[in-house]
Amino acid sequence: MTIGNDSAYFIKARQAGRPVVKDLPKFDLDQYIANYRGKTRFDRLLLIGTTAPLLAPEALRAAVTEAKQGRDVGRYDAVVAAIRELLPGDINAVPDSAWIDRTNKQVKAESDRLETELKGYKNNLIKESIRMGYDDLGQHFHRTGDLINSVKAYGRMRDFCTTASHVVIMTLRLINVSIDQGNWLAVQTNVQKLRSPGQLSTEARQTAAKLSAAMGLALLASGNFREAAQEFVETDPRMAQARLDDPSDAEAFNEVMTPNDIAVYGGLCALASMDRNELQKHVLENGKFRTYLELEPHIRRAITFFVSSKYSACLSILESYRSDYLLDIHLQRHLGELYFQIRSKAIQQYFIPFSRVTFAALASAFDTDEHTIEQELTSMIKRKHLDARIDLVDRVLLSRTANARSDVHQNALKMAKDYERTAHLRILRIEMLNAGLEVTDKGKPGANTTLENVGLDPLHGGASAGNWISEGIGRSLRSGLRD
Q: Is the four-CA dihedral 421, 422, 427, 430 of positive or negative sign?
């Protein structure tokens, strides 16, 4: 059973401004989703099912299976609601009440058991047992979708961590929960805690790849593409060798992202925020990031084309993967801005050697039509990404030429005025000192201070000194000179 692009659900989605992917992506859904585990696996399936009409049935049914393998009833309710709208005749459109009741009872029983054990540990006053009790409780809440209580459990666990490895484990758990919550400020805060000089333990250094990936993801979510790129390109390559099908592999981070995601996120953020020299030095020649780029050769080719000024080829590659990136849970919200900034940079670089370029030439160079290029140029100029003017009569983009003669005259006049003012103030100060001028502080009778002591040096005193001079010094100076 397939779903058309014109179904009521996707018509409403487009009207609400949500993306709807009409074309099939380049990846195979089963192979793609097999690389993930945990909550992100379900979230990605649900996103694909509610964004891509051609993949919706397969993705939503897989999401139901994934939800039933866990104990998060909220996930199951969400995917059943989506199926009810998209596939009303499907067997999964009717909630499995027996499974829901059974799972709720199991979750409650497990919660009661863990809390009872924790109380026993507290009565025995054994710190390690209490720490493990909070750890088990936090993981249980995380698996069942109670993220708020999971954060609370891990937060209370902090007081019972006795070694550096305990702190690292606790902080990584907090980072994972914060990512699932979308609390990016908490992600950055916890990463910085492990990166602080006091936490530079062997365990913290072993998790450097995860910390870089988590920080890069938080910065990407915040729209800070340049700093996100710097984090991704400096990610330790050890994560690229992780076995994604082995949950016990400590290097794997596929409960959040895969090494392929690091290559894509880092490459796109770098293209959007770095110039050609920086791309060559910090991305293509970066030994750490090269390991990740080998997993996504099209990203490396796009960056190479951009560095070589082959902008049309670069943009063509990125456009061919637009459907894939719109189905990525972390890229979807930012893809439009990333692509806009990449195209803006390409147009800027293309326009640098010219004083004027026709819309037709730009449209041909960037494989689009004149109307689209006109809209892009207008948006770039409004956002101050391009210092140029548009001639709609001749349909030409004109560079702004600076008037060098006028600039020289303005700078010379400014220097002359500054010199004149400085000379006047220096002469005035000398005359005041020659007159032996003293200032009496009215707040302290009998207290005489010199001009400099009260901070009224005419040369350095600023506006207050100037006002004081204009009001009182003239009269005092003339009196001193007569004496």
A: positive
